[in-house]
Structures are given as C-alpha cells and as structure tokens.
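Reading is simple: the token line describes the chain's fold. The lines below illustrate.

. . .
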Amino acid sequence: MCCCAKEFVKCCLYFFDVIFFLTGIGLLVTGIYMYLGFLSGTYAVFLSGVPYLYVAYVLIGVGFFIIFISIIGCIAAARDSGCWLLTFYFLIVGVICVEVSIIIIAFAGLNLQDEVHSYIQESTHKEMVVYNHDDHEDFTKAWDTLQQEEKCCGFDRPNDWFQYAGKTFGVGDTPDSCCKIYQVGCGRSGNDYRFKEGCGDAIMDTVNHGLQVIGSVCVGFVFLQVILIVYILILYYLLRFGVKQRCCSAGVYDTD
C-alpha cells in the first residue's frame, strides 16, 4: 500500500510514467498521421515544400524516444535510485525542450499565414504546367482529387489553368475534374457547370489543421510531463534528504 510519503510518491510516479508512455504513443501516432496525411498522402505535392509540416518526422522520433525512456522511469522508481531518477529527469527535460520547440514552430506557422500562402501559391503555379504529363501522374491525380473533393478549381480561380499550365489548356479550359458532374471533355470552355472557387483556401485549411494538431497535442503533453517531473523531484528529495516519516499505519521508514 502507498501508505508512507515515499511509497505514495512512488505510486504517483508509476502512474504518471504510464501517462508519459502514453504521450509517447500519442506523439508517435500524431507524427504518423501527419506524415500519411500531409507528407505522403494525396495532397503531398502541394505541401511538400512547407517546412513547418516536417516536424512530423521529429514527432515520430520523439515518440519512440519517450517510449524507451519511460522504461528508465519504472526502473528508477523500482530501484529507489537517485542516479536513475536524475537520468530520467534530464531525459524528460530534453524531451520537453524539443516539444516546446515544436510548439513554437507550429504556432509560428499559424501566425505566418500570408508567407505560407504565398509560398504554396507560387510553387503550385509553377508546377501546374506538368498537369496531365505521363511522368507526373501523381501530380495530376492529386489535383483531380483535390478539385473533386473540395469542389474547387485552380489555386486562386479556374483561369489559373490557362494562365499557368502552358499550352495544355486554352482560354476558359480547365481539367475535367473541375466539373460539378465529372465526365470526359466537360472542362472545355463554354461549360458553365464547373466550380468557380479556387482551391487555395482548402489547401491552407489543410496546413492550418496540421499545425493546430501538432501544437495542441504537444502543449497538452508538456503539461503532463511537467507533473511527472514534479514527482521525480519529490521522490529524489525523499531518497536523498528524507528523514524518518510515520506511516498511516504503524511503523516508519528511514531513507538514511
């Protein structure tokens, strides 16, 4: 039973170490979600140049690292070892520093919307010229999927296809995926049943969603990890400087 102060703190430490392990799983899942959804998914061709989203790789690495060092925490508490506790403490501090850096990067990206929008807009316009080329099937598929799912056409407006796609499209022409009812040849000039809105807002919403997920998850996990640090320090103090304490029942323990 967690009767004495030390034993109570150890129980709390075990509990929050399990929570710490789960935060590692959470960061790992978040990183994989970001990677599959934004860096290797359908929209990857639009977002691959956004540096803020590459923290997904860092999340995956930190997640694996947390899972590993949570084992050290269990060993430290079980052995009543001040040395192991200090090692665990400094490892968690290092993890928190990395997570705080990720939070800053994520929210910096959210606060630099105009710069991110301009970057994606410029890179997307440059690449529209390869639409429907045999060696760029992924790009073509990504645009068709985006325009059908988000009910949009071009980045800013449908005329982007004529302006930036070179000789692929004539005046007023768009890909068939811009049509409200998809069929071959429906994107030719004169068809009024096409989407009028550009896809830029949908792409930016995807970026913002990714950054918000990263920032929010890390903020919550840092809070839990700070609580774990508090119990590590309390247990270390009791092991290093504790004196005889009376239990809830008969008996005492002595850390000397």
